[in-house]
Amino acid sequence: MTKSKSSTSGGKVSFEDSLKRLEEIVQKLEEGELSLDESLKLFEEGIEISRACTKKLSDAEKKVEKLIKIGQQFKTEKFETEEEE
Amino acid sequence: MEAEIYTVSEITKKIKDILEGSIPKIWVEGEISNYTLHSSGHRYFSLKDENSQIRCVFWRFRSNSLRFEPEDGMKVIALGNITVYQRGGQYQLDVILLHPAGIGKLELEFQRLKEKLTQEGLFDEEHKLPLPEFPETIGVVTSPTGAAIRDIIKIIHRRFPSVRIILNPVKVQGKGAAEEIAQAIEEFNQYKEVDLLIVGRGGGSLEDLWAFNEEIVARAIYNSKIPIISAVGHEIDFTIADFVADLRAPTPSSAAELAVKDRTVLLKEISSYSRKLLTIQSNLIKYSKQRVNALVESYGLRRPMDFVIQRSQRTDELLKTLIKSIKNSFEFRKKSLSLVLGKLNALSPLAVFERGFSLTRKLPELMVIKDASMLEVDDLVEVKFLKGKIESKVKKIEEN
């Protein structure tokens, strides 16, 4: 519908969920009641998530945007702060 | 005389109805006298000026709104209802709020609105939304030119740079500011793509901050489905917006700090997780290896091996025995051979020579002579002994 709809809310896993999953994996592994196969799988997943999280935290800063309403629709455009004195 | 006669109670009741029904909630300014804090916790006093006085009661259950301790001679402003105490036949001011005199109209308005919205439940804790732990997009409602937006951007970028920031620029003071702020909050709610809102401005006078004390802003914050952090003025400034917001930040900078976690802390947390993962994993592998080794060493697995070892040892033994027996049989044959050789030796003609016999052969044909008649006189013969031989000539022959 609206052309400005981006994909922020859909599909991809949020940072919060990733971190929760990582916590869960560590906990499961610490309990140590898994088969070697299962724990290897979890280990790999855990390492992958921790890499992804670290990457997310190191991502470059996003440009600041400005919300603009045109009729019933929204769009955003780049916003530059005006440095005063 | 048809004059109507009231009982005291009837007329008192009538006065009560008239008074309480016709005078709305009012602010009254005066000086406190005859102040008593009763052991019940209720406060009784009078407010007076040069010409009049009015009795006042301030119930204990309202006393948490009291920000100072009243005393005789103090000039105050009281908000309350006129009520009639029927038993004493007195009218009095049932005080709801009490402030030292000298505060301005704005403050009174602030108190009035705060009181009203409290009653309506706009500040109720149950209505407050939890803030997202890791907002991906943050909407900001503030002035595009103020220090507030710059501080917010700077801090969010420092702490969690990948967060998307969207500003909905508004006027934060002056005519129409409150309406713009309220509308900006509503617009973000229609836009839907933000996880958290920061609504506020930098410090200023009570008048400068006033937009955030307006009912329209309070209602917009209350109606927002997106959690809101209020960030108005300095530490000491409390606005109506702060009371309605899901979280009050003392300043715009601290709103940014409350909104996003610090990535250095998070990075530490994550690396401690991955360290844990590695430790657990290497322990697990070590443990599994030990288990495998233990199994390899176990009796169950050793048995088949043992079987093989035992058999091969037996094979060696048998081989040894075989070799030995072959050797033995060879020795035996050797012995019996020498025995036969001995016997052969006994039969040898040489052995006969040893016993003193000799062999006589006729020369030159070396014909063995077994009978004297085979010779004639003058024949040459060779006689062989054990050692040596001779040649001789036949001289005489005796046949017999």
Short recap of the structure:
The complex is a heterodimer of chains A (85) and B (400). Chain A is 47% helix and 14% strand. Chain A contains two helices and two strands.
What does this structure look like?
The complex is a heterodimer of chains A (85) and B (400). Chain A is 47% helix and 14% strand. Chain A has a two-stranded antiparallel sheet. The longest helix of chain A is centred in the middle third of the chain and has 23 residues, at 36-58. In chain A, helix 1 (15-31) runs antiparallel to helix 2. Chain A has one domain. Chain A has helices at residues 15-31, 36-58, and strands at residues 65-70, 73-78. The termini of chain A are far apart. In chain A, a hairpin with a 2-residue loop joins strand 1 and strand 2 (73-78). Chain B is of the alpha/beta class and 400 residues long. Among the domains of chain B are: 8-103, OB fold (Dihydrolipoamide Acetyltransferase, E2P), CATH 2.40.50.140; 135-261, Rossmann fold, CATH 3.40.50.960; 353-393, no CATH class. Helix content of chain B is 43%, strand content 22%. Chain B contains ten helices and 14 strands. Chain B has helices at residues 8-22, 105-120, 147-159, 177-191, 215-223, 240-244, 252-259, 263-297, 299-347, 349-354; strands at 26-37, 43-48, 53-58, 75-85, 90-100, 137-142, 164-169, 196-201, 228-232, 247-249, 359-362, 367-368, 380-384, 389-393. In chain B, strand 1 and strand 2 form a beta hairpin. The radius of gyration of chain B is 66 Å and the shape is rod-shaped. The interface between A and B is large, with 42 and 43 residues. Strand 1 of chain A pairs parallel with strand 7 (164-169) of chain B, so a sheet runs across the interface.
Could you outline the blueprint of secondary structure elements for this entry?
The complex is a heterodimer of chains A (85) and B (400).
Chain A: H1 15-31, H2 36-58, E1 65-70, E2 73-78
Antiparallel strand pairs in A: 1-2
Chain B: H1 8-22, E1 26-37, E2 43-48, E3 53-58, E4 75-85, E5 90-100, H2 105-120, E6 137-142, H3 147-159, E7 164-169, H4 177-191, E8 196-201, H5 215-223, E9 228-232, H6 240-244, E10 247-249, H7 252-259, H8 263-297, H9 299-347, H10 349-354, E11 359-362, E12 367-368, E13 380-384, E14 389-393
Parallel strand pairs in B: 3-5, 6-7, 6-8, 8-9, 9-10
Antiparallel strand pairs in B: 1-2, 1-4, 2-3, 4-5, 11-12, 11-13, 13-14
Helix pairs in contact in B: 3-7, 4-5
